[in-house]
Write a structure and sequence with these properties.
Layout lengths: L1 E6 L5 E5 L4 H10 L6 E5 L5 H12 L3 E5 L4 E5 L10 H4 L9 H8 L1 E5 L12 H9 L3 E5 L2 E5 L7 E3 L5 H11 L5 E5 L5 H12 L3 E3 L5 E5 L8 E3 L4 H13 L3 E5 L7 H10 L2 E4 L3 E5 L9 E2 L11 H8 L5 E5 L9 H7 L3 E5 L2 E5 L8 E3 L3 H13 L3 E5 L2 H4 L5 H7 L4 E5 L1
Parallel strand pairs: 2-14, 3-13, 9-10, 17-18, 21-22
Antiparallel strand pairs: 1-22, 1-23, 3-5, 4-5, 6-8, 7-8, 10-12, 11-12, 14-16, 15-16, 18-20, 19-20
Helix pairs in contact: 1-2, 1-7, 4-6, 5-6, 6-7, 8-10, 8-12, 10-12
Amino acid sequence: MDKIVINGGSRLTGKVKISAAKNSVLPIIAASLLCPCECVLDDIPFLDDVYVICSVLNSLGASIKIDEKMDQITIKGHNINSTEPPYDLVRKMRASFLVMGPILSRFGRIKISLPGGCNIGTRPIDLHLKGFAALGADIILGHGYVEAICKKLKGANIYLDFPSVGATENIMTAAVLADGETVIENAAEEPEIVDLANFLNNMGANITGAGTDKIKIEGVTELKGTRHQVIPDRIEAGTYMVAAAITGGNVTVENVIPEHVRPIIAKLQETGVQVYEEQNRVRVVSNARFKSVDIKTMPYPGFPTDMQAQFMALMSIARGTSIITETVFENRFMHVTELKRMGANIKIDGRSAVVEGVEGLTGAKVKATDLRAGAALVLGGLMAEGKTEIYDVHHIDRGYVDMVGKLKNIGADIERISE
């Protein structure tokens, strides 16, 4: 079992390069199942979740070639021989459910266990199934599995009760080979949706409106292979931006699309931290004295739920009181207990957390309860007095490429230790 050990108090300076977006590459890998031809994906972040989704595709008969030196994955779906991903893989990661749309669309049948992943909320799949049913699939639920069957999917008008990213992605991939036009209203607008649509259009799909709340998909008869470079990870970028702020640092975050991190930039500037934008980089300059701000997580282009925990670490030492409201997931305050072990003053009231800024945090033994909670504890440890030991760091591995190495390169006193 590994742990991360941080001796806090170092000011971060220098440059850090952001990897490609995990939340973009996973649905794109799943979508490659839509055609039998070769798809080449560049600039891949080799995270635990990426290996899991590749294993899922491999279990279905897809040919997967991983080239870590080139940061590249090559996928061929010409020998798919199963439409039932194994339970042991699907339970590891919620994104495994994203193979449902492509497999259903291409083969007319899929049976899959209910998804797993971080325990940050129920994240129901009803919107996914509602979309599949509207496209003409018969849905069968039972014994922990869901099965969808159809002869041929047909285009439909689908309104999502909530702009779910996963449901939007799954319905998009199901609709690209359907007969006729599909319209998804109240669709998710995240940059990862746009990246998936660009990938599918490069394969020959006909999708318009991605990035807005109304996406139109005109079904096509077949797709072809393509090559695609995945967009940078806006959540990883935001995490290092907060790392610079919380340590009073001066860090240039490279390989980032500033428009994608606009809500993070706005909130950092509101605290008094200086943020300078360039074409593909963002520079954060902080004097470690910042004021509290209120935060409410919202679907894109609002403040991302995946940055809530990291900002709570920042607000724990801000001047004043901040109220952080979580509207996306109902169980995303598990990091509060661990931050309080480090001296943070946080009270939870329903879906809101009241954070009273303190003079500073102190090192402690803490554990990562989920991916972003782990990132928040690393941020807290960077500025805490003394030594912080973070356990269960496998959660962090799900979303950050070499976090320890990248932080060390910009001045953090941080080590990963195997016990």
